[in-house]
Amino acid sequence: MRLLEHRSEGRSVGRVVVAIVLILLPSLVRAPQAQAPIEVARERRVIPGFNEPNSPPNVTVSEGLRAAVTDPAAYRGGRLDLNQAVFLRFFDRNRVAPPKSIVVFLPGLAVGANMFTVVAREIVSLSVGETEAWAVDSRSNLLEDTRPLIEAERTGMVAASLDALRAYQDHPAGPGGYIANHPFEVSGFMSEWGLDVYLRDVKAIVEEARRRVDPATPRVLLAGHDFYGASLVANFAAYNFDGVAGYALLAGLILLDGTPAPNAAFGSAPRTPTDEGYLNTGATFGTLQLPGLNVLRNPQQPGDEAFLITSRFNPFTHQVSEIAAQLAVADPEGRSALPAEFAPTPPATNAAAMALMIDDEFTEADDERFSVGFLRVPAGGKFGDVANKMPDPEGANPNGYFTPKNLGSDAAGNPILQRWDGLKDLTPIGLTEREVSDPARVARGFLVGDGVASLETGEANYLSWYFPKRLLLDMLMALNLRPRLSAAVESAMRARGGNTLTETENARVNISILGLPAERGILVRHVPVPFPFSFVFSAYAFSLSARPTIYSKLLPDYAHRDVTWSSEPLVPGLIVEFARTGKVN
Questions:
Q1: Pair 531, 552: CB distance under 8 Å
Q2: What is this structure's pTM?
Q3: What is the reported pLDDT for 312?
Q4: Rounded distance, CA 509 to CA 238, Å?
Q5: Per-residue pLDDT band at 452 (split at 50, 70, 90)
Q6: Rounded Cα gap, residues 102 and 219, in angstroms
Q7: For residues 424 and 582, what is the distance between their CA atoms, to the nearest angstrom?
Q8: DSSP conformation class of 95
Q9: Under a CB-based contact definition with an 8 Å cutoff, are residues 293 and 553 in contact?
């Protein structure tokens, strides 16, 4: 096993490496010129997924649920069909030859395919069309009613976004819409949308990629973001699909600021539930409490829902977040018009309201962080003029954690709004670190289909409103990538025509792995000092008897979500190089 690590001599070494890589990227990823200029295009594809026997079209649903599912792609032959695999394809529209490689991305927890829009476009562009990027959407995203968002984005007007907000907030069924307020109506099928169903949907997409890639260079790679996405990548590689090993379908794995857990790097790793916990009493996934399988199948009370409903993972919360992005794009300097429970305190502009939700200096949740600048500081001033500082509760950001100050009122008695500045360098205001993502670019990425979606075709968006709890429950059972399931658990998994988990191939995984940890990401607080960052990836490799090569590159100053959104070519360049050669220099 070979580990490439550039942080052990300190942060300055990491920044030197990044500078060198950025300089060399054009030569590292240069490919033969296409016959026509590169035109990066995107299309949403919906193909047959795993035929889960309890899901539409195999069962009927209520008229209320059918009316609530408005995505045209959720219907085949006039019937609701949720046994489908969904992905975004980013490609060179002018390329005639098939791509030489395809990278298939799996998103993190409760996130949709649109989160890969920036990195996917850059991969196609930097590879001169030789590498395509596909981003997987969960089948549960077919349940989302994005029509109000699409209508608002068509006009780009603040009034239209406020209309969309009212459509969700004042929905006759309650805030968030019909499914959010009738969650048990999807329990009959969503309770079966576990790890096996998800991985078999991904397999359908991987097989589609293998059919489209150049047969002379059939390189299909699987990339996952976050602990969750990275674990799914490892689950896929370790899976036995009716005699076909997952890793045998792939040329490489990519772990984006995440690693399979548990392993020696994580003292607070999730625990595999007991049989009684899995079946009945439930289990804990991070801060989430999950019901047992039998409860998911027979819900009786709040908390038994088949999808996540919490203050953070809530359909209405997700809808408001996407509307906040619309407002930041349509009227960045206007006063935030978000509902009171979501509005920034003190008052702020739309751009600032959006940034305060996601910036790594202002949001506590380290798995939601981007580095997109700072509140606007008066000329010649310092950060203390507009914000109060305290230690970062996650321990990831050396700058600390900040709360905006009340700036008072102007001469006319109107509140002075906090505004946002997309700074790339925070040193002039008394802080350290580069900011590597552009706030306007991030806000546009939250839109449905880049803001050009169609009501007739549907599109992908940034968040996943109805995330299946069964998937998380199954992932806990498969934490060590070689689960030993009791007869009782296996019987329950098969009780409604499903499959048991078949992760029998982990020790044989022998394909190269690229790990890209963010210096200010979710791995940083878990790395035992003085071990280098590569330790978190080598811990995964120690479970692989074949000892594949792992390449690890630290991303200095990157927060967790900068890894796929940064305006720098660093990450897409490394992925293009790895997709083409199976290694990075």
A1: no
A2: 0.92
A3: 87
A4: 7
A5: confident
A6: 6
A7: 32
A8: -
A9: no
In angstroms, the CA 125 to CA 113 distance is 19
Range 468-505 burial, b when 16+ CB lie within 10 A, else e: bbbbbbbbbbbbbbebebeeebeebbeeeebbebbbeb
Range name among 51-60, 240-249, 319-328, 446-455 with the lowest pLDDT average: 446-455
Taking alpha carbons only, the member of 448, 452, 450, 446 closest to residue 460 is 448
For 340, residues 6+ apart whose C-beta sits below 8 A from its C-beta are none
Q: Helix H segments across 478-545? A: 487-494, 534-541
Please check the confidence at residue 29 and state whether its pLDDT lies above 60. no
**Cβ-contact 518, 565 below 8 angstroms:** no
Name the 3-class secondary structure at 219.
strand
For residue 8, pLDDT over 50 is answered with no
pLDDT of 177-190, one tens digit each? 999 999 999 999 99
- pLDDT at residue number 36: 75
Three-class HEC string of 226-243? HHHHHHHHHHHHHCEECC
Element (H, E) at 387: strand 387-390
Closest C-alpha among 247, 246, 306 to residue 473: 306
Sequence-separated (6 or more) residues with CB below 8 Å from residue 530: none
Note if the bond before 391 is cis, omega within 30 degrees: no
Residues forming a β-bridge with 80: 75
DSSP designation for 59: S
The SS3 call for residue 446 is: coil
CA distance 168 to 321: 12
Tokens describing residue 436: 């590597």
Tokens coding 407: 């700036």
Residue extents of the structural domains in the chain: 342-448
Token pair, residue 319, equals 């809808």
Higher-pLDDT residue of 191 and 394 is 191
Mean per-residue pLDDT of the chain: 90
